[in-house]
Amino acid sequence: MTETKKLTTRDIAFIGMAIAVIEVCKIALQGVPNVETTTFWIMMFTLILGRKMLFVIPAFILIEGCIYGFGIWWVMYIYAWPLLAFITWLIRSQDSVILYSIVSGIFGLCFGALCSIPYFFIGGFAMMFNWWIAGIPFDLIHGGANFVIMLLLYRPVRNAMEKAGQMNKT
Amino acid sequence: MKNKKIFLSLIAVVAVVSVLIFAYKTYAPAAAQGSKNITIEVINSAQESTVYNVSTEAEYLEEAFADAEGLVVESVEGQYGIMMKAVNGEEAVWEVNNAYWSITVNGEYGMYGASEQVVNDGDVFQLVYTIG
User: Fold this and answer.
1) Which residue of A has its CA nearest to B11?
2) What is the DSSP letter of B71?
3) pLDDT tens digits for B120-131?
4) How far apart (Å, rounded) are the C-alpha atoms in residues A109 and B2?
5) ipTM metric
6) A97-115 vs A38-49: helix crossing angle, rounded to 10
7) Angle at B69 (CA atoms; ends B68, B73), nearest 5 degrees
8) Is A8 on the interface with B (CB under 8 A)?
9) Distance from the Cα of residue B132 to its chain's centroid
10) CA A22 to chain CA centroid, nearest Å
């Protein structure tokens, strides 16, 4: 996949597949508390698609809203996932499994803090802070799970994508 | 250079984990031991209220449910601890109408699930059928 501005038919197909992979994996892991592959896939697809990830994330967020409703949790998605993609895009030249695992883990650890922001506008700082504190045990599990998932899957998935000729080597 | 980046990243992980553990240990409410008298009010979808005055030694709300005679709470394991699926036989199904059972604690919207919500003497809990 190239980082050219023009969107090719192949890009469109790949973008559709990326959205489906993210969504299906998310649904498949719903029964496992605090373990998700959305972080992993958004980072991996950002490495492949680059700026074209701008087509994937809004579609993913919209689908989530259509499936689960447009509640306050949905507002968090609007900035949390694009932020992850942006951070990944900034370090896209790196090819270190440890680095991506650490970024993925830190994102999981900070997920509660990120998602607490809308509560500031509902109930002020106290509500935002209490909401964040209440979720810390889950953030710790989330961060650990993110780290392990990236550690285990980054290399095989990246190799597979490179083999498939999808990886941008520029 | 590469090792330096990884080393700095690892320091960042340790720092974030330390902040989280410190914040939780400092600010999360601690469970209180001993006997307590609490009130649990159930407000169903028809806005009908059922009040339970409960004497309990439970430290967490989920355990106190068992001491409320006549109160039946069915729960499932969710992303953030247990989630109340049905209260007194009335099921809230998010997928159908964005409904869920919420908890208020002394009039404030609860931040914790029933399994993490600390019980203190005199607390008033509401289990409310809520449309999200």
Assistant:
1) A102
2) -
3) 999 999 999 998
4) 23
5) 0.81
6) 120
7) 65
8) no
9) 17
10) 9
Q: Do A98 and B111 touch (CB under 8 A)?
A: no
As given in the structure block, the two tokens for residue A112 are 């509660």
Q: Which one-letter amino acid corresponds to residue A132?
A: W
Strand order in the sheet with B73-78: B73-78, B81-87, B90-91
Of the candidates B29, B130, B56, B120, the residue with the CA atom closest to the CA atom of residue B87: B130
* Alpha-helical segments (H) within chain B: 2-27, 61-65, 94-97
A75-120 per-position pLDDT tens digit: 999 999 999 999 999 999 999 999 999 999 999 999 999 999 998 9
CB proximity list for A10: less than 8 A, separation 6 or greater: A1
For residues B98 and B72, the answer to whether their CB atoms sit within 8 Å is: no
Contact between chains at A109 and B80 (C-beta distance less than 8 A): no
Angle of helix A97-115 versus helix A72-90 axis, rounded to 10? 150
How many C-beta neighbours within 10 Å does residue A95 have? 12
